[in-house]
UniProtKB/TrEMBL annotation, chain B:
Protein name: DUF3006 domain-containing protein
Top-level taxonomic group: Bacteria
InterPro entries in the record: DUF3006 (IPR021377)
Natural source organism: Herbinix luporum
Amino acid sequence: MKKFILWILITAVFLSTGCSYIEHTQGADDKKNHLENEITPEDSVDSGKSHDKNNLASPDNKTSQSEDTSKQEDTNPKSQETDTSEDPEAESSILKLHIIDVGQGDSILIESNNKYMLVDGGERDQGKVVVNYLEKIGVKKLDYLIATHPHSDHIGGLAQVIDNFKIGRIIMPNVVHTSKTFENLLDTIANKGLKITKPVVGNEYNIGNASFIIIAPSSSKYNNLNDYSVGVKLQNGNNSFVLTGDAEIKSENEMLKTGINLEADVLKLGHHGSTTSNSDNFIDAVNPSIAIISAGEGNQYGHPHVEVLENIKNRNIKLFRTDKQGTIIIESNGRTISVNKEPYVITNDDLKAKNQAEAKSEQKTQTDKNTAKSSNTKNESSTAKDSNNSKNITVHITKTGSKYHRSGCRHLKSDIAVTLEEALNKGLTPCKTCKPPTN
Amino acid sequence: MKKYIVDRFEGEYAVCEKEDLTLVNILRSKLPAETKEGDCLVEKDDGSFYIDIEATMDRKQQIRRKLDSLFE
């Protein structure tokens, strides 16, 4: 169906530039507009935009949503409808971003003019938390639901959400996961008769008085599920927001090459503030004044990582984090941004955590650097001491590198499995990203 | 014999889904070196793990069919 519409749009543009067949051009445009309204009502409800720059009457302006997506500079969202039959004053230009505290995971609600979008739904046991939060806000329908990628800390709660609300467009990456949590999500979507839209970089959608553009994933195949994360840039007037799920540096680098202007006021730091994401180049490009971290207090993965906190501090970016401050609500009026909390002050203790952990792991055998501060009893392994000696531990090395790694580390260009003893005998040192065992 | 599915890796842990859908962190050093996201794992009585390759393939195919049927 989409291809058919695209064909009509292209035909319309072609005809309109061809000097003759004026009547046909008009007819094609009428048909196109009719189809757009019919097929994607949720995309077309926005009217009476207050942005002067968008107030162009040319029908061709509307085609930008479906075509010519690769080179859009979305500082000026082009796809907004310009139907003047409704009073622009009646609409609110307020956009709210609720970064819901779901412990270790992500769940972000976006609202604009009584339209709603949910990006992720936390772990399965957080489904109820998200549902309750949405009910409290007064959500009846989620016009958009984005499941950034199939990890349980992002999709676990979504089945319950789908069961409890009307759902418009669901956007999910084209990648399979074998977990039952993911399978349950698909079953829930199927049982409700819903369909899934694949994310296409450059595609733009309207939500209330705001809009968002897909900025990731660029590729169709990655080595890990995080990189499949759907990334979006939200635009509300002059304010913008970048959300990238758990997209790692590989996908961040691809986002830099899309040609989309990534500069934004607010960046939700990737992967709960982990060093697997949040590269300098990416943060340079987004250049946010506000950074958000969604993570669980005392999580066992050391999120957010000290290196990322240091970076945010050095850049004087205001930080807000759900693990320390609970749910964060950011409000934009299209010109300025306000937050319901004071910025989190990064303390020396926050930055010391790494050094303490390193000292600890030197004293003892390889243990979880967060065991000390974690009260999570789910960690069976924390009690199972690692008395493995270096002959029994397998690590991974590359042909020429000076580091050794865990399986799946992003620095593994070539992948040669060896025992830890062999790696140490070669004089290799542990990778700082994947932190493999040291003894 | 307990069964798990690797949901993801976080640092030195494999975050694994148990049969009751709750999650458990298992140190990656305890798992076969070639373990990947999505692998179905079996924990033997002696506490060691192996990858159930057949079960992994089956689930991948089954869920791929479900996902494909849902895309617009």
